[in-house]
């Protein structure tokens, strides 16, 4: 089980309470599809992904980005039990969506960069460390059922 | 996983670099500082420094040194392998930095670029910079074995 200090819990709670899911979610998934174009393979049914402009304007991608971001709420509410919390989602991603688990890390890196762009001076090294730790735990939990 | 830079990628990198280079030393120091905090295992390469804290003289100075390397790489973007030959020798034989750390520093450089230039670090700039830094890492790894 992962240990969280009071300060880490507070940083995560604070970050999510001020989070603009509509903006950040859309930007994160959009950016992931542009920076790592092979991830587009999972979005065949989402409409026009022909170029960066099309991806940025695609409402299905934007909506799905928001959905993915809200997926992190589960971890937020169950910080002491993230592995079990994501067991079901892990099965979904491996059995049904067939997502290569390496992609979780890619999306997590992109999300970190989107948050860094959004928070400016509030995104201190300490906040970055805590946020990346949080995402790493979620990524690990999502990969658990792949074996 | 490295893919070569298109003409458009190179133009994008050069244009973005021209914009941010006045703040290069700041960017380098911030990226280095973040790396030391977020990836504490990287501190072993700086065990000879008295002070590894954010804002310390050593971190500020070394951040600037790193960015001079990046500036050099931008100038030699058409042939990174040959252009960074000496730096590769330095990293391979003298510093012996585990090449996995190049990726770590690259990530932190991009975090700082996004953080300090949010309007400019668009997805298009991001992908070009990501490819560029990966190729710089590859060039730096050339002499390792």
UniProtKB/TrEMBL annotation, chain A:
Keyword hit for Iron: yes
Listed SUPFAM superfamilies: Globin-like (SSF46458)
Keywords attached to this entry: Heme, Iron, Metal-binding, Oxygen transport, Transport
Signal sequence bounds: none
GO molecular function, one term: organic acid binding
Matching PROSITE patterns: GLOBIN
InterPro entries found in the cross-reference section: Globin (IPR000971), Globin-like_sf (IPR009050), Globin/Proto (IPR012292), Hemoglobin_b (IPR002337), Hemoglobin_oxygen_transport (IPR050056)
GO cellular component: blood microparticle; haptoglobin-hemoglobin complex; hemoglobin complex
GO biological process: hydrogen peroxide catabolic process
Record family assignment: Belongs to the globin family.
Name recorded for this polypeptide: Hemoglobin subunit beta-1-like
Source organism: Gouania willdenowi
Gene (UniProt): LOC114481204
Automatic annotation (TrEMBL), chain B:
Domain of life: Eukaryota
Alphabetical list of SUPFAM superfamilies matching this protein: Globin-like
CDD domains: Hb-alpha-like
Record-given protein name: Hemoglobin embryonic subunit alpha-like
Gene responsible for this protein: LOC114467958
Cellular component, GO annotation: blood microparticle; haptoglobin-hemoglobin complex; hemoglobin complex
Keyword entries, A-Z: Heme, Iron, Metal-binding, Oxygen transport, Transport
Protein family according to the UniProt entry: Belongs to the globin family.
Molecular function per GO: haptoglobin binding; heme binding; metal ion binding; organic acid binding; oxygen binding; oxygen carrier activity; peroxidase activity
Every Globin domain range: 4-145
Gene3D superfamilies the UniProt entry points to: Globins
GO biological process: hydrogen peroxide catabolic process
Taxonomic source organism: Gouania willdenowi (Blunt-snouted clingfish)
């Amino acid at each position: 089980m992962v240990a969280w200090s009071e300060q880490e819990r507070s940083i995560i709670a604070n970050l999510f309470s001020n989070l603009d899911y509509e903006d950040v979610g859309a930007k994160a998934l959009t950016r992931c599809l542009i920076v790592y174009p092979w991830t587009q393979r999972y979005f065949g049914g989402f409409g026009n992904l022909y170029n960066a402009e099309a991806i940025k304007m695609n409402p299905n991608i934007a909506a799905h980005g928001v959905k993915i971001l809200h997926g992190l709420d589960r971890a937020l509410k169950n910080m002491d039990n993230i592995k079990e919390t994501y067991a079901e989602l892990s099965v979904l991603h491996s059995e049904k969506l067939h997502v290569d688990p390496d992609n979780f890390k890619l999306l997590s890196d992109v999300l970190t960069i989107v948050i860094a762009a959004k928070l400016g001076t509030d995104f201190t090294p300490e906040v970055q460390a805590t946020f990346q730790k949080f995402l790493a735990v979620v990524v690990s939990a999502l990969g658990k059922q792949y074996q | 996983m490295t893919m070569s830079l298109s003409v458009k990628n190179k133009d994008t990198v050069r244009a973005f670099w021209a914009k941010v280079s006045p703040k290069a030393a700041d960017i380098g120091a911030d990226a280095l500082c973040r790396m030391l905090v977020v990836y504490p295992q990287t501190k072993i390469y700086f065990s000879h420094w008295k002070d590894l804290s954010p804002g310390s003289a050593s971190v500020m100075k070394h951040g600037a040194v790193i960015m001079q390397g990046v500036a050099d790489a931008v100038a030699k973007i058409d042939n990174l392998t040959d252009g960074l030959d000496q730096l590769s020798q330095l990293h391979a034989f003298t510093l012996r930095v585990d090449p996995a750390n190049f990726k770590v520093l690259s990530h932190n450089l991009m975090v700082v670029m996004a953080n300090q230039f949010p309007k400019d670090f668009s997805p298009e700039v991001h992908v070009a910079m990501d490819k560029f830094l990966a190729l710089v890492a590859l060039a730096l790894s050339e002499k390792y074995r």
